[in-house]
Specification:
Keywords: Hydrolase. Belongs to the carbon-nitrogen hydrolase superfamily. NIT1/NIT2 family. InterPro entries: C-N_Hydrolase, C-N_Hydrolase_sf, De_GSH_amidase, UPF0012_CS. Its EC number is 3.5.-.-. With 266 residues, the chain is of the alpha/beta class. The chain has one domain: 4-Layer Sandwich (Nitrilase/N-carbamoyl-D-aminoacid amidohydrolase), CATH 3.60.110.10. The protein is built from seven helices and 15 strands. Strands 1, 2, 3, 4, 5, 8 and 15 form a seven-stranded mixed β-sheet that branches. A hairpin with a 2-residue loop joins strand 6 and strand 7. Helix 1 packs parallel to helix 3.
Length: 266
């Protein structure tokens, strides 16, 4: 399966961001022959001087942003994955991962683990999800869905792989900071290696976030990466490599722990 990772700096204008997403979907990813395009987290709107803008600009899934992207995807088989904020009651929002194909939303996932760390409190305006993400199928491979801070919680990746995932995708907006790029690379590589699964992790770039998108194979080898700048990065995910890795390193068969379950909401 050929995949594309489209990293860019999200602006405060949803129309501009929709145009960027559509350009990556139609002009570049399709021209490159990708079956799966992964975009960053929170692609609807961002203003680094106004942290609440991402919530104040939130739109429903039938709003103009998603309507434009659905129309752009209608006549092709590309699967595109990203997140956007969807409004809820009390001026809050859900951080919703969307998988889009053929003009339709084929899956959604509300982010479970909210980024309350390193002096950031995502939960101040965002509600956590309550359901394990679904799997989707792309080009004959099972794909598990995660979002940004989820990568720090190995239980979710393991659960998705035990549910059948062969590829893990992770839209992200990984904030810059001391050792943060090291955290990003180590965590993404670990989730791939410990689960013998491909990892496709795509980061927003710009002054706040690191970019540095990664495609990692089931033995933890980085096979493609982005820089700190906007770009479209391609990689091939081979089912034969997955089979070789799981034969040589049968950790899924050798494990002694039960399948992780989601803790009831407190």
């Amino acid at each position: 399966m050929k995949i594309a990772m489209g990293q860019f700096a999200v602006s405060r204008d949803p129309q501009d961001n929709a145009a960027t997403c559509i350009s990556l979907m139609q002009q570049q990813a399709l021209a490159g022959g990708a079956a799966l395009l992964v975009l960053p987290e929170a692609v609807l709107a961002r203003d680094n001087a106004d942290p609440d803008h991402v919530i104040n600009a939130a739109q429903p899934l039938n709003g103009p942003f998603m309507t434009a992207l659905r129309a752009a995807s209608k006549d092709n088989a590309l699967t595109t994955v990203f997140t956007l904020h969807v409004p809820t009651a009390d001026r809050k929002a859900l951080n919703v991962l969307v998988a889009l194909r053929g003009g339709e939303v084929i899956a959604t996932y509300d982010k479970l683990h909210l980024y309350d760390a390193f002096n950031v409190q995502e939960s101040r305006r965002v509600m956590p999800g309550t359901q394990i993400p679904p799997l989707i199928e792309v080009a004959g491979m099972k794909v598990g869905l995660m979002t940004c801070y989820d990568v720090r919680f190995p239980e979710l990746a393991r659960r998705l792989v035990l549910d059948g995932a062969e590829v893990l995708v992770l839209p992200a907006a990984w904030v810059r900071g001391p050792l943060k790029e090291r955290h990003w690379e180590v965590l993404c590589s670990a989730r791939a290696l410990e689960n013998t699964a491909f990892m496709v992790a795509v980061g927003e770039c710009g002054p706040r976030n690191i970019g540095n998108s990664l495609a990692i194979d089931p033995l933890g080898v980085i096979v493609a990466r982005g820089t700190e700048a906007p770009g479209l990065i391609f990689a091939e995910l081979a089912a034969s490599r997955l089979a070789e890795a799981r034969s040589a390193l049968p950790v899924l068969e050798n494990r002694r722990f039960a399948k992780p379950e989601l803790e009831a909401k407190k």
